[in-house]
Amino acid sequence: xxxFTISLDDALATAFDAFIARRGYANRSExxxxxxxxxxxxxxxxxxxxxxxxxxxSYVYKHHERELAERMTGLQHAHHDLTVATMxxxxxxxxxxxxxLLRGPTAAVQRFADAVCAERGVHHGHLNLIAVDVHDPQPHxxxxxxxxxxxxxxxxxHDGAHPHVHLRPRR
Length: 171
Fold this sequence. Notes:
- This protein has two domains: 38 residues; 121 residues, ACT-like. Chain A, domain 2 (Alpha-Beta Plaits, 2-Layer Sandwich).
- Helices cover 37% and strands 28% of the residues.
- It has a five-stranded antiparallel beta sheet with strand order 2-3-1-4-5.
């Protein structure tokens, strides 16, 4: 780990310390690391939109809006290559919250999120997009069931090697 020193004027240091307290950081170093990661991530996504990414798109919508639920489902089906899973929650008699997990090229994920958020009746859309490095490891064995699954009677040992992709957040 490397160390470096920065100087801040009193007003900026006070504002930063208030930010740290609001967010619950243990110290300035953790806050600076998170801010650096976020800015480096933003620059990566802007400079290299072909990178792979994972994302959570969340939005609130009025489910009584004419054919909106069908349009939203249609968008997800049209982009089934990006859509991993969807969670739907009813907020009240008119509004629903959905969270869609996405995976794919960051530019395609961003275009999908923009299309969803642009639909009439969709409010409070937000995309949390994270660039990832894709690793295709050699097939390997999982000779024992996951302990938590086995404890619930849901796990069993895999009977052979199988390949799968590992996605690691960049930075």
